[in-house]
């Protein structure tokens, strides 16, 4: 089934949408599934990869969908934040931001929060789609907010990490990363600007009163959520642009240096997994290969992540499954081109989309594909699994729903 974003005009549609047509009634929902950003979606049903519907937005949607209270929230290019019925994709409301692309949304109770290219964090009423407040930072906000105990936590390209009161939109505290003396150039369309240490693209994870995030100054930071005081920081050899995942007191994250790290909650290294050893494509003499590692999904003692090795002579991408205790590889799958999103896990399947438009649902223990679905273009979001449905976005602006 294929249709355009539709407007919910009848009051009856509004009442049904908010009162319980979907089994999913959670009031809080976040990018990567939870505040720990583990990329896990508990569900007792397994989607079979069968298309139920697809709808097209006004522009590409590079953010991942977030689903709460029977609605899908989607932050798209062109400055559009959509609220859609999770059963049929019908548009409930649309909020027009002042800017182009932005972060994946966060939902807490009656508000949805997003960042954008014109330096703002927006708070929008979940029922009406009206703006409650906006908070201005010094540069782009592509970090997806986290909300805990009435405080919103988010990073900005300006090199500062912010804590904002969700009711008033007032700053509670801010923390400066290593290189953030001046605002960072906004000329680049995506990703941290080269030569501008301190930019924060990483989405924060929260556990036990500590908020964790990475920065383009090559550090992973741990801050006290109440005061913003630094508890510790961990140095890598390149930018950290993906989100850390926290499970059983261990923080998992990848760096653009080509390593995937596991550190304990005191900042001590437990192990690191070197993806560079699996690259069989060489680089020219004096050339610098590019390594990119996705956020990790952690489930049942395994962490899943993708890697991208890109050099003058070609590109090589893998999906890895690594034991969380030992750091030893359990399996790897060669993939044609790693997608913009990161792996997710639900009900013993790991889901992943690639740049060729394929979505894979693989056995989490073996890596063997259970099913594969072909979208119209690049898969640019995580695969979100909830209520026996899998949702994701393609670069051309389609939102897909599979059962």
How would you explain this protein's 3D organization?
- This protein is mostly beta strands and 403 residues long.
- The chain has one domain (2-402): Methylamine Dehydrogenase, Chain H, CATH 2.130.10.10.
- Helices cover 2% and strands 44% of the residues.
- Strand 6 (80-85) and strand 7 form a beta hairpin.
- The protein is globular, with a radius of gyration of 20 Å.
- The model is unreliable at 6-24 and 180-195 (pLDDT under 50).
Q: What portion of residues is helical?
A: under 10%
Strand content: 35-45%
Give start-end ranges of low-pLDDT stretches: 6-24, 180-195
The geometry reads as: globular
- In what order do the strands lie side by side in the largest sheet? 1-3-35-34-33
Structurally, the number of domains stands at: 1
Classification by helices and strands: mainly beta
CATH class: Mainly Beta
Characterize the quaternary organization of these chains. single chain
Q: Average pLDDT value?
A: 87
Q: Give me the CATH superfamily.
A: YVTN repeat-like/Quinoprotein amine dehydrogenase
Rg value = 20 Å
Number of helical segments with 4 or more residues:
1
Main pleated-sheet profile: 5 strands, mixed
CATH architecture: 7 Propeller
Number of strands: 35
**CATH fold category name:** Methylamine Dehydrogenase, Chain H
Q: Distance N terminus to C terminus?
A: 12 Å
Keywords:
single chain, 403 residues, mainly beta, Methylamine Dehydrogenase, Chain H, 5-stranded mixed β-sheet, 5-stranded antiparallel β-sheet, 1 helix
